[in-house]
Amino acid sequence: MEPPADEGTPDGPSTVGDAIGGATVFPARVAARVLRGPLETAVEDLLSAPEVGRILDRALSGPLPEELALSLARHQVVERVLRKLAANGELDRLLDAALASPRTFALLDRVLASDETREVLERVVAGPEVRAALTAQSVDFADQVAGGVRHAATGFDRRLALRPSKTAQFAGLASRGVALVVDALAIVTASVAIGAAAGLVGSLVGGVHPQWLAQSLLSLAAVGIFLGYFSLFWSTVGQTPGMRLMHLYVVPQRTAGQLTLWRALVRTVGLALAIIPCFLGFVPALFDRRRRALPDYLAGTVVVYGDHDGRAAG
Fold it and tell me: Which residues make Cβ contacts (< 8 Å) with residue 311, sequence separation at least 6?
């Protein structure tokens, strides 16, 4: 059975409807194009009116902005929008476009070149938090390095000992050698500083004459620094800075407590005598159960491993 003629084909009503709709919307489009300029002018005049400004000020000073912000946060509007943009890839496209824009680079250059940015960076870098973090990292790094050196030196102490000790508290040649190198560097630094100061004073008074007298005074100063360095450290705290770095401690062999100044001076002289013949004065430490060298025999002392507070272990 054929459909009634007045119903038309399936495409008939749609085509007629589109034509009617287009004819209806066309005047609105023409009116929008014609009235765009006047409408924009009217909107600008409306927004610039003082009454509208007072209304906006009253609205912004009231609870409306806070309520709106709380409502947005409560319903997670921003998070939902960002998730949707990230899901369809629009967020990545927007970020790429923003980063690739020359305006972004120009804005960053202006911000970085501004005086306010430099002031903020100076405050951050010079702040106590940054200094404390750098100090803590430096201290931790130095402790790790020193701990590694101590561990390696202790292992060499055990390997170099030809006659093992009954206890593991006596320090061997490797640890004492590293400490002696550190102390030697400190003595050389002090000697150079004193020599430079003496040279400066001598140049102000015309120099020291004859030449042999100047050399003799410098030699006596070097000997005095050597004797004073070891004697004072051993008699006061029982360890030099190099020994403290290696956690070593000098103690009397038979009595408790620290060394007297006289015994520390005798040990310093013994140290010099042990060094002069190509360090042969330290050879007895390879065979002695307490790892004593020539300075220890002369002063009646032993060198032991100490804890982090510088106190003798064991």
Answer: 249
